[in-house]
């Protein structure tokens, strides 16, 4: 059994953004410190041991909400997993708190860097700040200073990945993909990942279902972007879960196909640790439980 990524669900379902494609609609009260969610630390060690013995090279902090709302919990996770020495440790974030409270987060980032974190993956939907505001911060007048955030993360020593959700009306054609790649390259972003927005067959929230159904890439839009990457990029890696990594004019670009159920049972894609101590290998199947 081969596992590529060890995903650690940090934080809770709380998030400081308001993405219309997200099912986590729990928004934290402003100015109030949220109680840190409990973690089954004993099972976390078991998960780390299994990940290590399965050959995992990348541990990724992600969440159903925004992990940076609980920075001390991330530090504790890093302490607990230190003995397993995962070479690559990544944090998936919307970047908002790091950008808005950089003085506070500078100290956390330094701590995380010293404890082995290598990459900060910032999710976006566009290079245009107004488009990002519309999706992430519709309740605010402006979006964060994304170039400033990237420079700040670089200065702290991190490698930066921009994870762009592809959606109709946002990054949905070859021209906008070209501009996005140029934007990433200009800012020295190490990796750019393109992930088409998921259209769930059903969703707990009608609003989410409606938005994703209206904005998922059409077949033509998806083909146009893929053809552009094939024509202008040099294929450098074919990942087992179907994603393809290209070098486009010196910029690393990964086109994710969102195939979350791996057709090859010998090549499991993910090992996912849930804070309650459960361990699964698929997000969408509660039955894919290991312990
Ligand atoms: S940043 Fe992530 S968790 Fe937060 S609302 Fe957007 S998609 Fe959901």
TrEMBL record:
Keywords: Iron, Iron-sulfur, Metal-binding, S-adenosyl-L-methionine. Pfam families: Radical_SAM. Residues 1-235 form the Radical SAM core domain. InterPro entries: Aldolase_TIM, Radical_SAM_PqqE_MftC-like, rSAM, rSAM_sf. The keyword Cell cycle does not apply. GO terms for molecular function: catalytic activity; iron-sulfur cluster binding; metal ion binding. PROSITE patterns: RADICAL_SAM (PS51918). Signal peptide: none annotated. This is Radical SAM core domain-containing protein. It comes from Candidatus Sungbacteria bacterium RIFCSPHIGHO2_01_FULL_47_32.
């Amino acid at each position: 059994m081969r596992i590529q990524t060890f995903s650690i669900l940090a934080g809770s379902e709380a998030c400081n953004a308001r993405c219309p494609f997200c099912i986590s609609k729990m928004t934290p009260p402003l100015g109030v410190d949220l109680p840190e969610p409990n973690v089954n630390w004993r099972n976390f060690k078991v998960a780390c041991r299994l990940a290590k013995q399965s050959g995992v090279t990348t541990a990724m902090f992600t969440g159903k909400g925004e992990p940076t709302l609980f920075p001390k919990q991330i530090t504790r996770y890093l302490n607990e997993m230190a003995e397993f020495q995962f070479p690559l440790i990544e944090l998936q974030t919307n970047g908002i708190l790091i950008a808005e409270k950089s003085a506070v987060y500078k100290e956390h980032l330094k701590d995380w860097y010293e404890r082995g974190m290598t990459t900060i993956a910032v999710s976006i939907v566009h290079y245009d700040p107004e488009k990002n505001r519309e999706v992430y911060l519709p309740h605010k007048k402006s979006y964060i200073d994304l170039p400033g955030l990237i420079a700040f993360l670089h200065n702290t020593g991190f490698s930066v990945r921009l994870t762009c959700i592809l959606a109709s009306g946002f990054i949905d054609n070859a021209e906008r993909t070209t501009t996005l790649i140029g934007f990433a390259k200009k800012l020295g972003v190490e990796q750019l990942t393109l992930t088409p927005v998921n259209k769930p067959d059903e969703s707990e929230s009608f609003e989410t279902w409606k938005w994703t159904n209206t904005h998922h890439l059409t077949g033509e839009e998806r083909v146009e972007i893929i053809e552009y990457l094939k024509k202008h990029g040099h294929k450098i890696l074919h990942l087992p879960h179907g994603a393809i990594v290209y070098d486009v004019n010196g910029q690393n670009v990964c086109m994710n196909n969102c195939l979350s159920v791996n057709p090859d049972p010998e090549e499991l894609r993910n090992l996912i640790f849930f804070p309650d101590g459960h361990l699964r290998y698929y997000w969408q199947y509660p039955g894919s439980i290991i312990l």
